[in-house]
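Hi U.,

Before I forget, here's the chain from the pilot set. I'm dumping it here mostly so it's searchable later in email.
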Amino acid sequence: MGLERIWAGWRMPYMRQAAERDGGELPCVFCQILASDEGDEATYVVWRGRLCFAVLNAFPYTSGHMMVVPYRHVGDPTELTSEEAAEIWSASMDAIRALQAAYRPDGLNLGVNLGRAAGAGVTGHFHLHVLGRWTGDANFVASVAEARVLPEALPVTWERLKAAWPS
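Structure:
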């Protein structure tokens, strides 16, 4: 069976709009979290290190979807210092351990989206995604209705991962 192509002509205006938006400066959500005086529970910061932090994704793919982010606003991972890169990687391993302890997923995704074309929602502040995956976790709602059903509220997820984070 050959590759089937589905034409979505409505996407080009959206892509042009997104490209135009990229020229303007939008507030950085990670910098807003760091500047907030609301506290870690309200901003879903799971862990804070010396050079980076782990935070829940407010629009998660699955329950427990975290991001590991440097404090410094830098968009390109090649601009990270060796100390920042080492702490981000170490924190990512701790995020994996916390996910495994709290959720026991069948698998894990670890990933980075660099640039809008790669799917980055926040292009100017580098972040690494860590999320659990379960066999059969796709269902008809995501496939047909373009919606995702999450079985747990973010405050509950925050509590579970905060408690499971390695000391």
